[in-house]
């Protein structure tokens, strides 16, 4: 008989009243083959009992439930009682509630035994209700647990999601104080269960009770309601913390996420906080601070750095103990007993059926009789003396040499590395009986070979090559015996040694330099040619703002050019060969220092801002009063001459003339623009003179000559003065008035000098084709010696903003190189040659005299013997 047949045989009804917490289930039976047995089970009292709440289960009443909103109205009579229902949570089952006693339902089969037991129950008990088997008893116990669980759920009526309504039925009055109740089972969608019984066999495991209790109850739909069954739908919520989020991430300040923290090594911050602000890295101490912490901090050994914030974190005792146990190869948990009783996971439960379809053979677990017979035969043979053990041979006595050395002992001699004799060189083409014609001696080579009779070791070939028509015509070699004898002498008289051969790839000897494309920008092409001078241009200078260019030539003139257009703005006669020219670095003055033979001219080029031009004229128009008496040594070397404002020289732009007693080779300005120095190589102790424009006075810093001075230079930041003699560079401190160091150039003649804008590196050009890079913080010897040129180097220059330097030589070329100086003192400068440009034309073995960078752009100027100035961009 099926489940649906049982439902038709038995009709049930359920009535729920919620005037109180009491409920009653009643069951009425109709004549059928299936008998219903009910056993009363005592249920503990539940808090907040209400006697008016009852649930009746009567005949001819179908049970079905719905969830409706509170605003919905029922079509049934007003006598129906509606109870506000609150499920509490999705995981709690919904059943009827009762207080006092509850009756669980059990079902009997349609067999005769079941009928007999039912009749006996009617005779023995007044109610005629009794359980028929242990399975039914277990079922009643589980049903009681469910019933108690539902009672606690139905009491939660503070905020109900809907109303649970039942069909109208005749109200039943309680016949006794002990109300009866029976439960119906709610099932999920696609699952049907009959209210009044189950025919399937129930399992006896208590785990099923727990699963049934924890099974969730969802929403009851009107469309799915059918007689004698309730269909529920599981309503699943989305848990936002179910997948990846953990509560450990709630207190994290750094919001970068799970990324490698080494991405922030080159940044000053380590991440971002919840407000989007940068989390700055904490200050890092050096090795000395680390050592002091190690000596003073007792928690140093348990301090680690948090990669998320960069802060130091002190490990607790539990973490430290865990790390120590892991380092000692122990189990992390100290409370874990590794020698505890073994749990037999696979053999503890005896299966009712085997895993394999075929049972094992009997011989697989019974000792072999054949092997037993064979062992018995061997034992009997040993007892009878038929099998005898092998007799060990007596060991012979071993003798050794008393005074034997390591070289004579065979086992020790093999330890030493054996050096085989070198093989003879294989024969070449000259030793052939029919050599090529180029290997045969002519009369000159034969004469030279015979003249080396006294020194045969210098001969390239120890025989005279000869040519024969066939191999049969080759005579006996007369030097065969002698060569064999010499070979034998080499084998047993010459000592042998292993010569280690270094296998070095040529690519490993060349330093790995970055590509020039990665080092842009730098000048690569010729952009402009400034033409106008009639003789070689020896010197050039650029205005501090980079708008104008001045050049001095052997045609006794100084020309002012506009950089962008190449137009010559002014031509100023200098009255002599211009060997050096320099623009004042002070932007508040429009002043140009020109060295022409023995005169130094201070010229106002009258270009640029008109206010600056007028201010410069006002400053140089009148000479200030001399409040200090100049020594006779200075007066004899230098005389200041004021140019009249009404004279012709003033109209040309000349403002002040300083007469020197020797020819001036170089003029250079101090960084502030008030002092400048001149060099006279033939002046001996008065070779260097320092002038001050504001006070119109000069001074000679050195009392005696320490070499032939070639050029001088002021430090861009510190009060340091560089003096380049013919072979060395001396560094002087102007405040202490003493020499700081002496740079050794290891060259014959220094031609030019340039200093890096940072002030720690110096570039020196020499006439012996070398460029010397000095690192003042490293050593007094050159850090790098660059041999880029094949002729004398005449000019070197650094760029003020870009990591570039250039050099010019008499081989008609200008070389631009990359020279990066790092702030880290532990990292050496990076020098990479970039571009070689040859555009000047040589004249009388002279080519390019001077190179100069633009103050703000990556442009390069060069002056040459061909009378032109060229711009490279």
From TrEMBL:
GO MF assignments: ribonucleoprotein complex binding
GO biological process terms held by the UniProt record: maturation of 5.8S rRNA from tricistronic rRNA transcript (SSU-rRNA, 5.8S rRNA, LSU-rRNA); maturation of LSU-rRNA from tricistronic rRNA transcript (SSU-rRNA, 5.8S rRNA, LSU-rRNA)
Primary location recorded for the protein, binned into one broad class: nucleus
Gene3D superfamilies found in the cross-reference section: YVTN repeat-like/Quinoprotein amine dehydrogenase (2.130.10.10)
Keyword Repeat in record: yes
Annotated spans, Disordered: 1-253
WD repeat coordinates: 530-571, 848-873
Signal peptide interval: none
Chain intervals with Basic and acidic residues compositional bias: 1-10, 36-62, 115-125, 213-238
PROSITE patterns named among the record's database cross-references: WD_REPEATS_1 (PS00678), WD_REPEATS_2 (PS50082), WD_REPEATS_REGION (PS50294)
Keywords: Nucleus, Repeat, Ribosome biogenesis, rRNA processing, WD repeat
Basic residues bias locations: 172-182
Pfam families the UniProt entry points to: BOP1NT, WD40
Keyword Transport belongs to the record: no
Family named by the database record: Belongs to the WD repeat BOP1/ERB1 family.
Functional description taken from the UniProt entry: Component of the PeBoW complex, which is required for maturation of 28S and 5.8S ribosomal RNAs and formation of the 60S ribosome.
Name this protein carries in UniProt: Ribosome biogenesis protein BOP1 homolog
């Amino acid at each position: 008989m099926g489940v649906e047949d049982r439902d038709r045989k038995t009709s049930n009804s359920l009535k729920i009243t919620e005037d109180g917490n009491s409920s009653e289930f009643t069951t009425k039976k109709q004549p059928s083959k299936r008998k219903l047995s009910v056993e009363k089970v005592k249920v503990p009292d539940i808090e907040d009992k209400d006697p008016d709440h009852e649930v009746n289960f009567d005949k001819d009443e179908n049970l079905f439930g719905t969830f409706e909103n509170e605003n919905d109205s029922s079509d049934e009579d007003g006598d129906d009682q509606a109870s506000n229902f609150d499920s509490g949570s999705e995981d709690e089952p919904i059943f009827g509630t009762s207080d006092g006693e509850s009756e669980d339902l059990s079902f009997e089969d349609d067999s005769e035994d079941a009928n007999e037991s039912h009749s006996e129950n009617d005779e023995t008990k007044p109610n005629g209700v009794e359980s028929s088997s242990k399975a039914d008893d277990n079922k009643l116990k589980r049903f009681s647990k469910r019933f108690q669980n539902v009672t606690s759920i139905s009491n939660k009526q503070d905020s109900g999601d809907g109303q649970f309504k039942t069909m109208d039925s005749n109200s039943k009055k309680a016949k006794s104080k002990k109300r009866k109740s029976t439960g119906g089972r709610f099932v999920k969608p696609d699952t049907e269960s009959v209210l009044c019984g189950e025919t399937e066999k129930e399992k006896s495991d208590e785990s099923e009770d727990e699963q049934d209790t924890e099974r969730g109850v969802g929403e009851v739909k009107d469309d799915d309601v059918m007689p004698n069954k309730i269909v529920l739908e599981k309503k699943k919520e989305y848990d936002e913390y179910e997948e990846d989020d953990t509560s450990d991430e709630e207190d994290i300040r750094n919001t970068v996420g799970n990324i490698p923290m080494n991405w922030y090594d080159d940044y000053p911050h380590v991440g971002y906080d919840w407000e989007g602000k940068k989390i700055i890295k904490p200050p890092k101490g050096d090795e000395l601070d680390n050592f002091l912490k190690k000596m003073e901090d007792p928690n140093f050994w348990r301090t680690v750095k948090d990669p998320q914030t960069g802060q130091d974190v002190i490990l607790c005792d539990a973490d430290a103990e865990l790390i120590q146990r892991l380092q000692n190869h122990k189990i992390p948990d100290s409370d874990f007993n590794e020698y505890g009783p073994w749990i037999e996971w696979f053999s503890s439960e005896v299966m009712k059926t085997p895993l394999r379809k075929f049972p094992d053979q009997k011989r697989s677990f019974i000792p072999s009789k054949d092997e037993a017979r064979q062992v018995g035969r061997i034992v009997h043979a040993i007892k009878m003396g038929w099998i005898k053990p092998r007799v060990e041979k007596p060991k012979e006595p071993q003798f050794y040499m008393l005074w034997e050395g390591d070289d004579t002992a065979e086992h020790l001699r093999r330890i030493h590395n054996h050096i085989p004799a070198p093989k003879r060189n294989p024969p070449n083409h000259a030793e052939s009986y029919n050599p090529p014609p180029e290997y045969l001696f002519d009369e000159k080579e034969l004469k030279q070979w015979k003249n080396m009779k006294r020194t045969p070791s210098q001969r390239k070939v120890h025989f005279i090559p000869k040519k024969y028509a066939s191999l049969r015509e080759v005579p006996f070699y007369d030097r065969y015996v002698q060569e064999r004898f010499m070979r034998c002498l080499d084998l047993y008289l010459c000592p042998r040694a292993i010569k280690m051969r270094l296998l070095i790839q040529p690519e490993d000897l060349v330093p790995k330099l970055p590509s020039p494309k990665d080092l842009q920008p730098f000048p690569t092409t010729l952009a402009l040619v400034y033409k106008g001078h009639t003789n070689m241009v020896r010197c050039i200078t650029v205005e501090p703002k980079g708008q104008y260019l001045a050049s001095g030539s052997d045609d006794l003139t100084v020309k002012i050019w506009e950089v962008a257009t190449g137009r010559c703005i002014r031509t100023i006669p200098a009255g002599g060969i211009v060997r050096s020219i320099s623009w004042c670095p002070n932007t508040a003055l429009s002043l140009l220092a020109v060295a022409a033979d023995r005169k130094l001219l201070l010229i106002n080029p009258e270009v640029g801002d008109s206010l600056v031009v007028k201010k410069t004229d006002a400053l140089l128009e009148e000479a200030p009063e001399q409040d200090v008496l100049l020594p006779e040594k200075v007066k004899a070397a230098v005389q200041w001459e004021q140019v009249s404002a009404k004279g012709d020289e003033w109209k040309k732009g000349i403002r002040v003339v300083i007469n020197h007693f020797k020819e001036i080779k170089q003029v250079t300005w101090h960084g502030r623009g008030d002092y400048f120095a001149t060099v006279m190589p033939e002046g001996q102790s008065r070779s260097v003179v320092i002038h001050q424009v504001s006070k119109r006075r000069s001074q000679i810093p050195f009392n005696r000559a320490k070499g032939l001075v070639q050029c001088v230079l002021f430090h861009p930041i510190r009060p340091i003065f560089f003096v380049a003699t013919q072979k060395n560079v001396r560094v002087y401190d102007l405040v202490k008035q003493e020499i700081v160091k002496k740079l050794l150039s290891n060259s014959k003649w220094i031609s030019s000098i340039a200093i890096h804008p940072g002030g720690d590196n110096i570039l020196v050009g020499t006439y012996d084709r070398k460029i010397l890079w000095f690192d003042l913080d490293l050593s007094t010897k050159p850090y790098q010696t660059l041999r880029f040129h094949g002729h004398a180097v005449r000019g070197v220059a650094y760029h003020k903003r870009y990591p570039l330097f250039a050099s010019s030589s008499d081989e008609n070329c200008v070389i631009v190189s990359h020279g990066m100086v790092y702030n880290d003192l532990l990292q050496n400068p990076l020098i990479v040659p970039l571009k070689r440009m040859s555009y000047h034309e040589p004249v009388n073995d002279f080519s390019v005299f001077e190179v100069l960078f633009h103050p703000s752009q990556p442009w390069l100027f060069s002056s040459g013997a061909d009378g032109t100035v060229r711009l490279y961009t």
